[in-house]
Amino acid sequence: MIIGVPKELKNNENRVGLTPAGVSAYRQAGHRVLVETLAGAGSGFFDEDYLAAGAEIFSSAREVWQHADMICKVKEPLPEEYAYFRENLILFTYLHLAPERELTAELCAKKVVAIAYETIQTDDGSLPLLMPMSEVAGRMSVQIGAQFLEKPHGGKGILLGGVPGVPPAHVVIVGGGIVGTNAARMAVGMGARVTLLDIHAGRLRELDDLFRGRLHTLMSNHYNIAEAVQSADLLIGAVLIPGARAPKLVTEEMVKSMAPGSVIVDVAIDQGGSIETIDRITTHSDPTYVKHGVVHYAVANMPGAVPRTSTIALTNVTIPYGLMIANKGYRTAIAQSRALARGVNVLNGHVVYEAVARSLNVPFVPLDDVLQDLPT
Ligand SMILES: NC(=O)C1=CN([C@@H]2O[C@H](COP(=O)(O)OP(=O)(O)OC[C@H]3O[C@@H](n4cnc5c(N)ncnc54)[C@H](O)[C@@H]3O)[C@@H](O)[C@H]2O)C=CC1
Ligand SMILES: CC(=O)C(=O)O
């Protein structure tokens, strides 16, 4: 198979879909790898590193997309990349289609085989290709929040950990999965008072045990969220219903109840966001806006700001699945791996991931039905 690795186009997205180590793994398995020039430079991987690993360097994204059977990316394609879509091209990347109507329509119209990192799910419910980036974003959310709480950055001017004689900041985290747990670890470590809400009592029990009393857990419901948000200095949105648009758990009224200069970091923005007052995605170059006196941060590619760490962490988990697709072809690979099959979002012009179809209110066709209709 021919694997293509174009340069990412999203604002300040310095990650890349494959490292030289990844190229070497594909080459050893007998595949060709085409890399767009400078695709890895932002992550500290240069053309000569890719060449030494056996890649072929192409000078334009167009050539890479055109010649590849499978494109390995990081983020969802941007509109300027839609022209490269074609029937049976395998697109292996984060897609976050629930809030992306236009992209979904393009993938369907061009009959791309769209496999989303974020919905590849093992039988125990975990999301192995989302996990490392959620670890990164969860940890970043607290350092970003701490920065925007500083007065020169528009915040109320408080130190997360306080100092002796002065109370610490109150950090409220909605969602106790990978992002939430990593955010809690950082916030507790910095000395903040931390409250975390989740809808699963079992998860709250695990976290209570893990943090040994240094984290306050609360059942997530409208009443408790409103109560916690009111006194939050830093609010972190970290919910996920796999594949679906994030539920708007924090209402505009709740945001209005926050003190001026408080900060919201909505990590769940890539799935549409969990805060009612977040009406747009922000970028690393213009990361915040102020509404009702509260600083809002809604960057959908947070790990892109720490690309060296993130690229290595991401490709550590994507390469085994990518190799499965390349070695066996996508049809055999998804027949043999239920986890990988759950990653297929669009196939032969149909949305085959139910939560995406429901979020976009478009027809859902089960994956097996689409596979049955495909010519062998
Ligand atoms: N902005 C960015 O750059 C990045 C965003 N993310 C996003 O962060 C979000 C969270 O990801 P993970 O932590 O990996 O997901 P996860 O599946 O590990 O955790 C989600 C948690 O939300 C909880 N939850 C669901 N409904 C809830 C509700 N009504 N109230 C409270 N909790 C609720 C679940 O029980 C679960 O514990 C996802 O949307 C993910 O795509 C992840 C990495 C980077
Ligand atoms: C998960 C995701 O959206 C990211 O890493 O950018």
TrEMBL record:
It catalyses: L-alanine + NAD(+) + H2O = pyruvate + NH4(+) + NADH + H(+). Residues 149-298 form the Alanine dehydrogenase/pyridine nucleotide transhydrogenase NAD(H)-binding domain. Its EC number is 1.4.1.1. One of its GO terms (biological process) is L-alanine catabolic process. The active site is at H96, D270. The keyword Oxidoreductase applies. NCBIfam families: alaDH. Belongs to the AlaDH/PNT family. PANTHER family: ALANINE DEHYDROGENASE. This is Alanine dehydrogenase. It comes from Brevibacillus borstelensis AK1.
